[in-house]
UniProtKB/TrEMBL annotation:
Keyword Transferase: yes
Full protein name: GMP synthase [glutamine-hydrolyzing]
Residue intervals of the Glutamine amidotransferase domain: 49-194
GO cellular component, one term: cytosol
PROSITE patterns xrefs: GATASE_TYPE_1 (PS51273)
Length: 245
């Protein structure tokens, strides 16, 4: 099997390690099955799409909609390199899956409006498939129900979908939870890689990053421990199953 390119943009070591382990687990991949790029730390290596099965982009504390002057040099570079990669990925309709930060990068690249209108606190939310979502090949392969729970926690989201994007899933607070570009490019606002252990770790890591009141950390951990988000993981394994070559 040709490897998948897994791109991370998490400057926090523990968060990056946790995301890497979770992506491997729920994608059903081993370290030998991925080319791993920590884009927040070093430039994107040479990418030959012919040598890959697909591209997966994880979440990030970066916000694409922040003013450029407020972004770190590493974020500006990472976003520029991601945009250049997406130029080629979109042109070829090459398999792509972006989780949370992937919504921002793919949405901005395709002309959508990403802003702070629909933030969601760290929590488990109910994701509802649209009619297009129920008939989408990847979603059908994953076998997720019409409504399922998933973990979220974000300051920015899609306010207006790109022209031509297909809305696959909605939510109560954030109306765009999953969309598709062309036939093979997917993005989710929720985190399909996060389970209770994973989100608990991130809550502790990002305690003072503005995602929630730090004084509420322990009650928040107790609340997320009750969530059942197993259905959301199946989208990742379905992506790998569908596109591995």
């Amino acid at each position: 099997m040709k490897p998948f390119l897994l791109i991370a943009t998490r400057p926090e070591d523990a968060a990056a390690r946790g995301e890497y382990r979770a992506m491997l687990r729920y994608c059903g991949l081993t370290p030998r099955d991925v080319v791993y790029s920590q884009l927040d730390r070093s430039p994107l290596p040479r990418v030959d799409l012919d040598e890959l099965s697909g591209v997966i982009v994880g979440g990030s504390p970066y916000s694409t909609s922040d003013p450029t002057e407020e972004k770190s040099p590493d974020q500006v570079r990472a976003e520029s390199e991601l945009s250049g990669l997406l130029d080629r990925v979109v042109a070829r309709d090459f398999p792509f899956f972006g989780a949370c930060y992937g919504v921002g990068t793919l949405g901005v690249h395709q002309g959508g409006l990403i802003d702070h209108t629909y933030p969601e606190p760290v929590s488990a939310v109910t994701v509802s498939l649209t009619e297009d979502g129920r008939s989408d090949p990847l979603v059908r392969l994953a076998g997720v129900p019409d409504r399922f729970d998933a973990f979220v926690g974000h300051k920015e989201s899609v306010h207006r979908l790109p022209a031509g994007a297909v809305l696959l899933a909605t939510g109560t607070a954030a109306p765009v939870q999953m969309f598709r570009i062309r036939k093979n490019l997917y993005a989710t606002q929720f985190h399909p890689e996060l389970d209770v252990e994973g989100i608990t770790e991130r809550i502790r890591i990002y305690r003072d990053k503005g995602y929630f009141d730090p004084e509420e950390m322990e009650p928040l951990i107790e609340r997320v421990a009750l969530a059942e988000v197993e259905d959301s993981h199946r989208l990742l394994s379905a992506f790998v199953t569908r596109y591995a070559r």
